[in-house]
Specification:
globular, mainly beta, about 475 residues
């Protein structure tokens, strides 16, 4: 059995995609059957090795169903050769066999020497964005203007700036030269209309770019700002004991957009890490959450919070980097690591029902924070994750855009609590839900921070009847 795996989850179709060296698997994660049978299809065996001799795992993502269908499509990208294939239904890919014959729609992204495709981000209904290891970005369209399936890759050049004339042209050239930056995350922003969406790109060194992209690949930069020093200074204010660390060890890990932001402002939650020096006796990595607000081409910091329940450093060579989620109604953040998941409130419960409630308007020591941890040494590892927004009749029809010209309604069950789904090796698919969307009468009261020993004991007793859970989860209180 292949050890390398990667997985993604799509709430709109209720599907999970798992990619291994030997093939890909798709199944419905929300089926009532305890062991749903996945659909399997092989991947092309002729992918070239990378410049270092390794063969990267193929990239893939599920695509929103076409009109009058509830079956997701599928697109696969081979990282080294840049080959792309798209099927508008998973059943088509299974029946035809990936790349074995010229079926579906195929295309290719042009790569420079030594460059590979690093990740793919869905910004539907505006298509997808490919991120290359050299720091370049490209838009991937799977429909033409008439709605016909196609594969069109358009490099995202900086032809949209806020300046004009000779100075605007000079700024464009300078920005183009600065595109070769190590990208930490590319995440979708708010949906603007039926063919446009925002995109947020963050580099490891703290450069943040806000884009507006449409379905045909036109991409315009709205904001491009370096926030590294401002975020770092805010972190050091919260955690002055880190002032002695090398500032070069401070990095941006991931970002996520707050989709409840107003139309004038885009709020972005940032996960940062402050690692110990290699030769230092310190072993803890300190993580912080910082909320940024993009407005009228500017970026300001709204607030920051330290993560106190988990300080295990992650390695650059880890297959799964930490992943940040902020499911609607955007009151609780989730940080997914390879062996643990942190749950952290970013808005006090007193402000849940207040319109426009802002982050960090309360004493951080009173907010909820806990970690769901897998025992070290156990053969359980998180290989993929996804989220579930709270849904209702209005949000389902408004958010669920397909690749055609009509909105595709989400006819699956309604989600009443924001959740995170974890795809693991050794423990299956796990769902973690919080109750911050419930009414104040039925919502459980958050415990004090940190979670007391009594609560952890109660958890251990409750789950102790399940031998698998008892051998897998870590119930001790972290200090």
């Amino acid at each position: 059995m292949s050890k390398r795996m990667a997985a993604t989850i799509d709430q709109t179709t209720g599907s999970t995609l798992l990619i291994k060296d030997t093939g890909a698997y798709v199944w419905k994660y929300d089926e009532s059957h305890p062991l749903p049978k996945p659909d399997h299809f092989p991947l092309p065996p002729d992918e070239r090795a990378n410049i270092d001799g390794t063969v990267p795992l193929a990239l893939g993502t599920l695509v929103a169903p076409i009109a009058n269908s509830d079956e997701p499509g599928f697109v696969v990208i081979m990282p080294v050769t840049g080959r792309i294939a798209y099927w508008d239904a998973v059943s088509s890919a299974i029946a035809e066999g990936l790349f074995t014959k010229k079926r579906g729609v195929e295309g290719k992204v042009d790569l420079e020497r030594g460059e590979t495709v690093q990740s793919v981000c869905s910004i539907e209904p505006a298509g997808f964005v490919l991120c290359m290891t050299g720091g370049r970005l490209a838009h991937l369209a799977l429909k033409d203007t008439t709605g016909k399936p196609t594969v069109v890759v358009t490099p995202m050049r900086n032809y949209g700036t806020s300046m004009s004339g000779i100075f605007g042209g000079l700024a464009s050239v300078l920005r183009s030269g600065g595109n070769r930056r190590e990208i930490a995350a590319i995440r979708p922003g708010r949906t603007i209309n039926r063919s446009e969406r925002e995109l947020v790109v963050a580099t490891i060194r703290g450069q943040f770019t806000q884009w507006e992209i449409n379905r045909i690949g036109t991409a315009v930069i709205i904001t491009d700002v370096d926030m590294r020093e401002q975020i770092l200074n805010r972190v050091l204010t919260l955690s002055p004991d880190l002032a002695s660390r090398d500032r070069d060890l401070f990095n941006i890990v991931d970002v996520v957009s707050d989709l409840s932001s107003s139309s004038e402002t885009l709020d972005v939650l940032v996960l940062s890490s402050f690692s110990p020096a290699f030769e230092s006796s310190e072993t803890e990595c300190h993580y912080h959450l910082t909320m940024l607000s993009f407005i009228a081409g500017r970026c300001v910091i709204k607030g920051s919070l330290p993560i106190t329940s988990y300080k295990v450093p992650f390695a650059d060579h880890d297959e799964i980097r930490p992943r940040l989620y902020l499911p609607m109604p955007a009151r609780t953040a989730f940080v997914v690591f390879s062996k643990a998941m942190v749950v952290m409130s970013i808005i006090s419960e007193d402000n849940y029902d207040s319109p426009g409630a802002q982050m960090m308007q309360y004493d951080p020591s009173s907010g909820f924070e806990d970690v769901i941890d897998f025992k070290q040494g156990e053969s359980v590892e998180i290989i993929g994750s996804g989220f579930e927004d709270v849904t209702n009749d209005h949000s389902s029809s408004e958010k669920s855009f397909g690749m055609g010209f009509d909105a595709v309604s989400d006819t699956r069950r309604k989600i009443y609590s924001p959740s995170i789904l974890l795809v693991t090796k050794g423990a299956g698919v796990l769902r973690c839900s919080v109750f911050d969307a419930e009414s104040s009468e039925s919502r459980p009261k958050p415990s004090i921070k940190p979670v007391p020993v009594k609560t952890k004991i109660e958890m251990a007793v409750f789950y102790g009847s399940n031998e698998k859970v008892r051998r897998t989860l870590f119930f001790l209180v972290r200090r």
